[in-house]
Design brief:
The complex is a heterodimer.
Chain A: H1 12-23, H2 33-60, H3 65-114, H4 117-120, H5 123-137, H6 143-171, H7 173-219, H8 224-229, H9 233-285, H10 291-341, E1 359-366, E2 376-383, E3 388-392, H11 399-406, E4 414-419, E5 422-423, H12 429-433, E6 436-439, H13 450-455, H14 462-471, H15 475-479, H16 502-516, E7 520-524, H17 532-545, E8 550-554, E9 566-571, E10 574-579, H18 581-587, H19 589-599, H20 608-614
Chain B: H1 2-29, H2 36-85, H3 88-92, H4 94-110, H5 112-143, H6 151-157, H7 159-208, H8 212-221, H9 226-276, H10 282-323, E1 346-353, E2 363-370, E3 375-379, H11 386-393, E4 401-406, E5 409-410, H12 416-420, E6 423-426, H13 437-442, H14 449-458, H15 462-466, H16 489-503, E7 507-511, H17 519-533, E8 537-541, E9 553-558, E10 561-566, H18 568-574, H19 577-600
The chains are: A alpha/beta, B alpha/beta.
């Protein structure tokens, strides 16, 4: 069973503590962000408000030109430097926190590779994970990217408003009061606006991912042929534009709502300014204020509106980012818990890796989490040390599942699997996996050199790479490439990366398994993309490849069974028969039908129609 | 455009009104015996104007934003459309693909045309209005003369003060050019770095860590997480470098702030001289400096726009380059004759083909004609040119030499859309998309349910589709629809075959259609051939030599040349490449027939 992913509602404070743990050692300098920006911003606000006041004072005192020049240019220089520092500090610190978000990609990737394979392949887990990524750490607008930035600026603007209100209180407490009241009032419509905005943003996010899917898959080179020959462009573009329109209309709704909210806050600013300016004018007229102090207070009060607006905006961002961070943490926390609960294995068994291994299934039953019926029902089988076994059966009979169970990628519901008599559950997973050299059905080529793709490490033995390539008959093909085994494959990250053909890829996959040289060799449909001659070569070579190893060969090409010591015929999740080709042909009718179905077309004497009737 | 201009003017006016208000208030308040009652009208009036301008500004901003979004989305849709509609050779051209990536990056980063136009309109309108308003105030400022007789007053009355002020204003303007240029260069450097950074990130995040079947390979072959660690380290170094470049670019751009701030200080001094000399009141000093500040900031915005426009313009160039990317081969205009009798004759006449940039020929001097209704098998080792020949026939590629003729006319002369309508192809790497089964079969907004049913039935997947949650309306995969389902490779292949049949084209081409199927499913497909093909011309490519038994004619390719052409019997007798290919597979089955008879008797029965 796969553990459910729970929605947790962490508070801003809890997420801050979490964030601090995540940034440790990566972006420690970020802790200076708030104090630094606060000092600078206070300086900028106060000096800006003071400039006209100072000028008024100097002119009022009939100060000399040299002093005037010195003071004004000095203040200008100071202010300029502070503003410069503010922009640079904000940019730098914001990007420094991005490191934390980027680190989540690594964590997410590592988690995805460490959770049980059955969970990684589960559609629901994948959907939830992609939601976590989209909202939590996927892009420039995701929760973890914005969270700390918004927190710092919420705190900054709150403190600025308090400081402004206190300074203005010096002139009149009425002003402090009205600032307090209007600021609190401004928060009311903001709450519902943020909710509305999130709703619309969900629409935008929801159409973002299909839109990205459409443009990405439309751009994929391998999709180009079908899209063109079936004239899908209009249909496909229509789907794209449908989602673009949804995004556009949601965005418009936000803009319209934003207008009314802004108008509301302009009204509050009007009230604040009416009371504030009124108070200052009355004080001035009553000679309780000097003209320079009046100018200072007046200018300072004018800036409060912008600060309140900034506070509202940042607080809204913070709330949103907190919710998004929770969504992001949902997968990450879940994965931590799941990985923690996974069996770690006991001791590393002291097997001699140079001798072939024995693999046994004892009454093994397995059901996929979303499947109703078991794929494998009470299966018992043994691959004897050094034996070459062919596994045969229809699509969906459970052949590949058997190999996945063996390698510990899947865990049986019932029964045990042993290697050399040791239960694989007690073997540390990394050790267990190192016992196998599999060739999977799909060819997986990584963006790296040929040598990397064979050795699967950047630290490879060039001679052994060459040997593996030569054994699968790729030496000549690779030699033709611009940099031999150092040639970069795929064009994912490199324009001049080479794309191999289907046949070449399949051979490369076999070379990868050979380089690994593990005691158990698994070949799952290794000939599907090979031509008849290459297929035949592989069969001939199989003897050599499997020498000194235990091996399992899965193929729809029943010819492959001729090179195996024993055939296991899998039907309806059970082993229907086991034996040599001749034995199965004689005693297992289902196998015989399968074989005749395929071999009839090669028969010299019959026409296909006759052969079909025979079968 | 008009909205942007109005917005620019309103924004600027807000600044002027605020400054004028403060100036006026200070002037009034410094008068002796001023009463509160005298000041109410001005205060109320100004507060009203400021409020009105703010609301007007928000309203204009809403429209400007809406225009911006629409333009931005429009650009994305245009890019997507272009990418979908270019011909195949252009589509796979690495240069085109680079252009696509560059156009996307530039749209995402620069904000596209909308931002650019907003910036230009804003800065030009802002500057014009600022110069007009401030120009008027300058005339007033220099018209105000001091009656004092000090040296300072004489200087304040002389034109030298005006010259000094113009000189001061010129400083940030002059400084802005090189600074903006420098900043543009850093910004460009940052973008450039980001393109590759994003590409690497996307590869890992969207591909390596996303596809669980890749994850399976990593789990087994890389149990110690070398790949993840490599990604983590690369990621950390790259984001640090990215931050460095962005901070540099920002720092350079902000340098002008310091210059500007000092200049404002200097302007205060210049206007202050007039004040000290008694030519203008203190309130007027504040107002005048405010006006001048507006001019300077308008000028700086302008300079900044000019400077960064190099980077923005380059981004837009990339977008335009992509939209206008030449797509030469789709030039044919000739309609394809609709023939109910499907009497289409195709002749391949001495065709050779070489992939762009490749040295070796993929096809050399191939001559072949197809008879209507014929079933033709195309056979040959990996890399012998079979798929290439199909690409040429379907105009996914154009012959380097020679011609292909349809009813006697070069196929390049036909309208490509009409021409491709006569082919239905199932490639070995056929593709389905994350929409419904019905969508995938019809690939059109208009669907014919009866035909859909027949297509799925013929392909042998109708029963399976009926078991899906929403039958034919069930989405494939959960990429778009959370209720979508994952289907097996064999089922997907059958849906691809149904799509080909649904298209109802006179030519049907099957390229390795049974590679993923077990012998029984393969047999089923073979059995349905007659229904699938009807009276169509069929071309069949397969490594399963057994499939040639359904073909009246077999063409064998090797190293891009036709080496054999005949029936199964004639080619087996010729003992050439076909014979070797066939025997390579058949030996395991035919020789067996004899042994099988012999061994049957003494076989032991064994079930474990």
């Amino acid at each position: 069973m796969i553990r459910k992913m729970a929605d947790k509602h962490y508070t801003i404070w809890q997420n801050l503590q979490w964030f601090k743990i995540q940034r440790r050692g990566l972006a420690d300098e970020v802790k200076w962000w708030l104090p630094g920006i606060l000092l600078i911003q206070l300086g900028v606000t106060l000096i800006s408000a003071a400039i006209p006041a100072v000028l008024v004072r100097l002119l009022g005192q009939q100060t000399g030109l040299p002093t005037l020049t010195l003071v004004m240019i000095g203040i200008g220089l100071g202010l300029g430097c502070l503003q410069f520092g503010q922009t640079v500090l904000d940019t730098y610190m914001h990007n420094a926190t991005s490191v934390v978000r980027m680190e989540m990609f690594t964590k997410d990737g590592a988690d995805y590779l460490h959770i049980p394979y059955v969970a990684a392949a589960n559609a629901e887990v994948r959907a939830k994970r992609s939601e976590s990524m989209n909202y939590g750490y996927g892009g420039d607008n995701s929760g973890i990217e914005i969270f700390y930035n918004a927190l710092v600026h919420t705190a900054l603007n709150s403190i600025l408003i308090v400081v402004d209100a206190l300074i203005l209180g010096w002139a009149s407490w009425w002003i402090t009061l009205i600032i307090g009241i209007t600021t609190v009032l401004a928060f009311f419509p903001q709450q519902s606006f943020q909710q509305y905005r999130r709703l619309q943003q969900k629409v935008i996010e929801d159409s973002w991912s299909p839109r990205t899917y459409i443009s990405r898959s439309g751009f994929r080179e391998e999709n180009g042929k079908d899209i063109r020959l079936y004239h899908m462009a209009n249909w496909y573009q229509g789907k794209y534009e449908h989602f673009v329109e949804a995004t556009d209309s949601a965005q418009m709704k936000i803009e319209r709502r934003q207008f009314w909210i802004s108008t509301g806050s302009a009204l509050l600013t009007l009230i604040r300014n009416a009371v504030g300016y009124g108070a200052l004018i009355v004080l001035m007229v009553n000679h309780q204020l000097s003209i320079s102090r009046f100018t200072f207070y007046f200018t300072l009060l004018s800036t409060v509106g912008a600060t309140v607006e900034a506070l509202l905006k940042q607080y809204g961002l913070l709330k949103g980012a907190n919710t998004d961070t929770n969504t992001g943490r949902r997968f990450l926390d879940w994965a931590d818990a799941v990985i923690h609960d996974m069996p770690k294995g006991k001791a590393v068994p002291s097997f001699d890796r140079h001798k072939p291994f024995t693999v046994s299934f004892d009454h093994v039953t397995f059901t996929y989490p979303d499947g109703q019926v078991p794929v494998l029902k009470d299966i018992s089988l043994t691959l004897k040390a050094g034996e070459r076994v062919a596994l045969v059966g229809l699509n969906g009979a459970g052949k590949t599942t058997i190999t996945m169970l063996m390698m510990g990628l899947l865990t049986p519901d019932k029964g045990t699997i042993t290697i050399n008599g040791v239960d694989i559950q007690s073997i540390p997973p990394a050790t267990l996996r190192s016992y196998f050299s599999p060739v999977f059905q799909e060819g997986t080529v990584f963006a790296g050199s040929v040598a990397y793709n064979v050795a699967m490490t950047r630290d490879y033995d060039a001679q052994r790479v060459q040997a593996a390539l030569s054994e699968v008959g790729l030496t000549a093909d690779i030699a033709k490439l611009a940099h031999g085994i150092d040639t970069k494959l795929t064009n994912y990250i490199q324009d001049d990366g080479v794309t191999l053909s289907g046949g070449q890829t399949q051979k490369l996959m076999i070379a990868r398994a050979l380089y690994r040289n593990a005691p158990i060799l698994i070949l799952d449909e290794p000939t599907a993309a090979l031509d008849a001659l290459a297929e035949s070569d592989l069969y001939q070579n199989y003897q050599k490849m499997a020498a000194g190893k235990t091996s399992l060969f899965i193929s729809h090409r029943l010819a492959s069974t001729r090179f195996s010591d024993r055939i296991l015929f899998l039907q309806h999740g059970q082993i229907a028969a086991s034996g040599t080709h001749a034995q199965l042909l004689a005693h297992c009718p289902a196998y015989a039908v399968l074989y005749h179905t395929q071999s009839q077309y090669y028969s010299e004497k019959q026409t296909p129609e006759e052969a079909v009737q025979d079968a | 455009m008009a909205v942007q201009a109005a917005l620019a003017i309103v924004t600027l006016l807000q600044g002027y009104v605020a400054v004028t208000f403060l100036g006026l208030l200070v002037s009034q308040l410094t008068r002796p015996n001023v009463t509160v009652n005298q000041l109410w009208p001005i205060t109320a009036g100004f507060l009203g104007i400021i409020f009105g301008l703010a609301v007007l500004g928000y309203w204009l901003n809403m429209h400007a934003q809406a225009n911006g979004w629409s333009a931005w989305f429009g650009m994305q849709a245009m890019t997507n459309k272009k990418m979908l509609t270019v011909t195949y050779p252009t589509f796979i051209d690495p240069k085109f693909r680079d252009n696509y990536a560059a156009a996307n990056t530039s749209i995402n980063y620069s904000g596209g045309f909308a931002t650019f136009i907003t910036e230009i309109v804003n800065s030009v309108c802002g500057l014009l209005v600022a110069v007009l308003l401030s120009g008027a105030s300058l005339v007033a400022l220099f018209g105000a003369r001091s009656t004092q007789t000090t040296t300072l007053a004489q200087f304040a009355n002389s034109p030298w003060l005006l010259i000094l002020m113009l000189f001061i204003i010129a400083i940030p303007v002059v400084a802005a050019f090189p600074l903006a240029k420098l900043s543009g260069r850093f910004t460009q450097k940052f973008y450039q770095y980001n393109i590759q950074f994003n590409r690497i990130g996307e590869y890992y995040i969207q591909k390596v860590f996303e596809d669980y079947s890749i994850g399976k390979v990593i789990r087994i072959f890389d149990p110690h997480d070398h790949l993840v660690h490599h990604f983590g380290e690369m990621n950390r170094t790259q984001i640090k470098q990215d931050n460095k470049l962005l901070t540099q670019a920002t720092a350079v751009r902000s340098l002008n702030n310091i210059v500007l701030s000092v200049i404002v200080g200097a302007l205060y001094v210049v206007v202050g001289i007039k004040g000290l000399a008694g030519a203008i009141s203190i309130g007027a000093v504040i107002a005048y400096v405010g006006y001048l500040q507006q001019v300077i900031s308008a000028l700086t915005t302008m300079m900044d726009t000019v400077g960064t426009s190099a980077a923005t313009l380059k981004g837009l160039d990339q977008f335009i380059d992509f939209i206008e990317y030449p797509d030469a081969p789709a030039t044919g205009k000739l309609p394809v004759e609709k023939r109910l009798d499907n009497e289409y004759a195709i002749k391949v006449d001495d065709v050779s083909f070489r992939y762009p940039g490749a040295k070796a020929w993929s096809l050399r001097h191939v001559t072949l004609d197809f008879k209507v209704g014929q079933r033709l098998a195309l056979v040959g080792p990996n890399g012998s040119g079979k798929t290439t020949l199909i690409k040429l026939l379907t105009r996914l590629a154009e012959p380097t030499e020679g011609h292909i003729l349809l009813n006697g006319i070069d196929i390049q002369k036909y309208d490509i859309h009409e021409y491709q309508q006569i082919f239905a192809v199932v490639f070995q790497d056929y593709r389905l998309f994350a929409f419904s089964v019905a969508d995938n079969v019809a690939v059109n907004t208009h669907k014919d349910p009866a035909r859909m049913k027949r297509a799925l039935t013929l392909a042998g997947v109708w029963d399976k589709v009926q078991t899906l949650p929403k039958q034919a309306d069930t989405s494939l995969t959960k990429n778009i629809d959370p209720d979508g389902v994952d289907i097996s490779g064999g089922e997907a292949q059958k849906i691809a075959i149904a799509r080909a049949w649904y298209k109802d084209a006179p030519f049907i081409i099957l390229d390795e259609p049974t590679a993923a199927l077990d012998p029984v499913s393969e047999y089923e497909i073979y059995q349905r051939f007659d229904d699938l093909m009807e009276n169509k011309t069929a071309i069949y490519v397969s490594h399963r030599m057994s499939s040639t038994r359904f073909s009246q004619r077999i063409v064998v390719l090797d190293h891009g040349e036709i080496v054999e052409d005949g029936t199964h019997e004639s080619l087996m007798q010729a003992k050439g490449l076909y014979y070797r290919l066939f025997e390579a597979q058949a030996q395991y089955y035919t020789s067996d027939k004899i042994k099988e008879e012999r061994k049957n008797a003494d076989a032991t029965y064994a079930i474990s």
